[in-house]
Amino acid sequence: MKRLFLVACSLMGIVSSAVATAEELAGTWHAQFETFSGLQTYHFAFDTTDGMPSAIAVVEQNDEKREVSFSDVKIEADTITFAELRKLQDREIRIEFACKLDDKGLSVSRKVGDFGSTETIATRKLPDPPPVTPPVPAVEVKIDRVIKEAFRDQFIIGMAGDVPARYSEAELTAAAKHFNAVTPENCMKPERVHPEEARWQFETTDALVDWAQKNQMSIHGHTLVWHAQTPKWFFENGDRALITQRMKDHIHTLVGRYKGKLQSWDVVNEAINDGGNEETAKTEGLRNSPWLQAMGPEYLTLAFRFAHEADPDATLYYNDYNIESGPKHASSMVLLKRLLNDGAPVHAVGIQGHWRSGSVPFDDIDKAISDYASLGLKVSITELDVTIRGESGGRFGRGPSRSGPASTEDLNRQADDYAKLFAIFMKHKDVIERVTLWGLHDRRTWRFGQHPLILDANSQPKPAYAAIVNEK
Ligand code: XIL
């Protein structure tokens, strides 16, 4: 209808400024508001195309996200107005927005009930995160090369994140500068990409694959079959045959879609129980996951078969944490031997590598890599992070830290740990395919507050980074 209107206007030689600006208002805008409860980032999406304007947003604050569908959306000339109804402690509050186009971008005013209003400028691009103050202690860090170059002839160096959406330009530049592989941190997990049996959500995953390809980064798929972050529908109202079929459809569709674009996949994630003892060490020690309950131990073999059918060139991983040590390591060997005996196309083992500075099991890691290699398998460190004490001093929307930055002493000890780890990886360079850090920097990490990565909260190299590349 709008198009007809535009055609009619142009036929009549009339240019309607209201119509032209409605189009300029359309699409996504990002705005940040300092509120009494902390920084809130609104990612607005305005639809102005059909004369029935609508406005929605994803709002991020601290670690939480909420989706908002605004009411009373009106467009007048260069201004769009709408309202958010929020329940706060049993009170409904009406937040009114007025967004007006001007040469700076979109000037947004946000009026909360009777509490007054805040103004900000929304932009098309995500704003850079505010710098962290005070930064981590001023430790002189000099690097002679970026990490992906330092290891170019030995193995790939990756990062995890659901790039590029909601990452700033500066962060994306840092990601592509330091790393040559990416693992989707959450967006390829079943609950995100396949929330209902008949509904797939490929927007974020397609965008990640496009972005990685444009930046010459290889992509490691994560993860197909897991007990966590998997919707219940997979297991409901179905017998073994139906649940197997669902697994097959899931794997075929997802792996098939990115065939030739993803180099590798975590096919089964975290199938082995924690802890264990002398007795369980002799067994596969399988976790009592819904997959095991529905399909029995064969679920692993089938998952690998389905993935191989969908992309015969992809490297297929069994991925788990703490499998380098103790009874869990022994169980992983029992399990992998059985899978290989049964002809399951398992090609590699992912040692996740979520460790703590001061207690990294170096000898176990060294031996575990040799053990897996002895089975003819490749190895990657798929989710590396090494935590230390202290807080990272602010993340998206989070105020200053309470416990302050990490101490120089802790940062240096962490640097030693990272250097020792990479020395072990170098020793096994013929077996190791990739080392992936689980996050981008100390704010983009699931272990926020524990400074686990090699780039600090401002994306600057930490002592750990320097120790890895300079001592290589
Ligand atoms: C984590 C993500 O980093 C978090 O953002 C999410 O809330 C939970 O999952 N082992 C895995 C990863 O295989 O998928 C997990 O990632 C970390 C542990």
Could you explain how this protein is built, in words?
With 472 residues, the protein is α/β, with parallel strands linked by helices. It is 30% helix and 26% strand. The protein has 13 helices and 18 strands. The strands form 3 sheets. It has an 8-stranded parallel β-barrel with strand order 10-11-12-13-14-15-17-18, surrounded by 4 helices. A 5-stranded antiparallel β-sheet has the order 5-6-7-8-9, with helices on one face. Helix 7 packs parallel to helix 9 and helix 12 runs parallel beside helix 13. The longest helix has 20 residues. The radius of gyration is 25 Å and the shape is globular. The termini are far apart. The relative contact order is 0.11. The N terminus is likely disordered. Bound molecules: (3S,4R)-3-hydroxy-2-oxopiperidin-4-yl beta-D-xylopyranoside. The site of (3S,4R)-3-hydroxy-2-oxopiperidin-4-yl beta-D-xylopyranoside has 6 residues, from loops.
Oligomer: single chain
Terminal residue distance: 64 Å
- Strands, total number: 18
Morphology: globular
Across the major sheet, the strand order is 10-11-12-13-14-15-17-18
Q: How many helical elements?
A: 13
Q: Major sheet: size, sense and barrel closure?
A: 8 strands, parallel, barrel
Poorly predicted runs of 5 or more residues: 1-18, 390-403
Radius of gyration from the alpha-carbon trace, in angstroms: 25 Å
Structural class: alpha/beta
**What portion of residues belong to β-strands?**
25-35%
Helix content: 25-40%
Mean pLDDT: 89
- Ligand kinds: (3S,4R)-3-hydroxy-2-oxopiperidin-4-yl beta-D-xylopyranoside
